[in-house]
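User: Show me sequence and structure for the first protein, then do the same for the second.

Assistant: Starting with the first protein.
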Amino acid sequence: MDTSRLERVSEHEWRLAPRGAMRVPAVIFADANLIREMDDKVLEQIGNVACLPGIVSAAYAMPDAHWGYGFPVGGVAAFDPEDGGVISAGGVGFDISCGVRTLLTGLRRSDVEPVKRALADGLFAEIPAGLGSRGKIALDAAETDAMLKGGARWAVERGYGVPADLERIEDRGTAAGALPDAVSEEAKNRQREEMGTLGSGNHYLEVQEVTELFDREAADAFGLEEGAIVVSIHCGSRGLGHQIGTEFLREMALAAPTHGIELPDLELACAPIASPLGQRYLGAMRAAINCALANRQIITHLTRKVFADLFPGARLDLLFDVSHNTCKEELHALDGERRRVFVHRKGATRAFGLGHPNLPAAFAAVGQPVFIGGSMGTTSSIMAGTATGRERGFSSACHGAGRRLSRHQALKRWRGRAVVDELAARGIIVRSPSLRGVAEEAPGAYKDTASVVDSAHAAGLARKVATLEPIVCIKG
């Protein structure tokens, strides 16, 4: 990225002053190396976000930011509904409520190592992965609507998990205000056989070892210790979310002139939050959030079944589940008063700090778990939300390493079989239905996870708690 237009506020913060149609500044959190690696399109896109009606404070980009659809991936922006604020389908993304949940197994590396191939095979057989994958659960129309209304709570009520899980899920497992009637029949039909599936792209289920701790108090609260085995699940709302995004982006783009909205980019199609269109999208998006939460809950149930066969007595308690493609109504301090705003996080994770009233009691003194995903052969991280993050980016943090190369570029550089063999030589087992997908998601196609995490930590967005190394990866 060309930094000549940016003011360097600190070692990990860069500012683009308002110009032209920008209503607020754009702020990028990154160290010098990361910002140089970023495509110039990131600056263009976050500047365009700063032009949208009703935006408050600033348009933010996280350390893992890269080019996306409308909003950059890693983009955060909040809008005031009392000041003509808008909601943008492009600011949420196509995989609505894609997120990560992490399970505590109570096992050690020495427990898993002798059976890790059987574990990989069992997980791959039980949890469908890949483009268009179908699960063993088929929902009729009434059950689809019930799932879209109830989320993870719906799944638990049908035997996929236990009530205690709900306390460790964002919004206690159910997004309020979901409107299944706002979801098209085409979107619902795409989802009826996709529950309990990972999907494709960068989605995964990983068995990981905790290899390093940085914050003992937070680690204790999260139930983490060095050498412990955890399972992380990364997926979202599958075909339903993609269909909702596609339909509403088109409708918002066509309706923008009737609302007096001049779009700096058609991919930023949006509607006033208070408008009927904005309210319908909110209802459909919340239904998709519930779909994603239910999907991860079912996958958790299937994962527990596989572990129970190999490790009788293993509990796989849920640490936490949080999404990174959403728009949430939240209260934030602005100009000395608490105001209701709608926070878009597109490839960015909610990261509430200690004492936040929406956190489970177990995390009140340390902050919310924040999951930063890697890519098959790279480390992942667990961080904790901070009080300073609330002021610096609407309690948001990065969600992964962020792409360094496009999927097309990755295919030119790597072959899937070679990636699988290379990782196997390092003791990492990969199971995937698509070697092409493995090549597209090769570890080298992503930025250095540690650098991204260090920047988020240094910028005060979240603080480091633990590093995770992959052992088994089921890749979509």
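Switching to the second protein now.
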Amino acid sequence: MTEFPDILIRVLRQAERVAALTGAGVSQESGLRTFRDAQTGLWQQYKPEDLASPEAFTRDPKLVWDWYAMRREKVREVQPNAGHYALAEMGHRVPHFTLITQNVDGLHRKAEQTLKVSKTFRVYPILELHGNIQRVRCSECGMVADAWEENGDVPRCAGCGGMLRPDVVWFGESLPRSELEAAVEAARGCQVFLSVGTSGIVQPAAALPFAAKNKGAVVVEVNLEPTPLTEKADFFLQGKSGEVLPELVRAVWPQA
């Protein structure tokens, strides 16, 4: 049982604006491997850039499509964990909550949809900085879709006939501008910022908790190991997000 400082409980209970950033550690607790950890067997011979870059897709679109089809299937085999649900519950409790994620698995959305069974559920924005592997977009016209026909080859866009690709951010590509701008705005405007299961290394997401700190927010880090953020965080809660976050939510909102 984790003991939380009284001041942290009080700050979270009174907060009107909270932002949370999540990374690969949250997904790993659901049984998902990281990108590089998934490069086993057939995929071990390839460099990450051979599987996740615009150049790789141009060179061998079927190879890239098959890699993401395999990863997509792995995502479908897992479920959100207690950490995902705790953040969804927090999103319901806090008047203005923004969830920012570096993960592409869509598990945060799945957790939100599972809990959104009541008309009184408070909907909150989920900003997927690196995209969502469950969606595709046309490599030519940019049309986004969450359904497509599998035909044994790289599917084609129903609109222009261009090849479909995963709607994720590849090496050498910029993050979606609208998502990043919304994330920066949420970080700069929040009273409490949570950094959960992220290494604190990958930019520009790694700068978000510092942007929040510079604007006077209380920064809370939840992680198994210290990161570059730890010394600057107001609170470092060491442990698995699936264990720490549910206890934190129950401590702040006993009725949850």
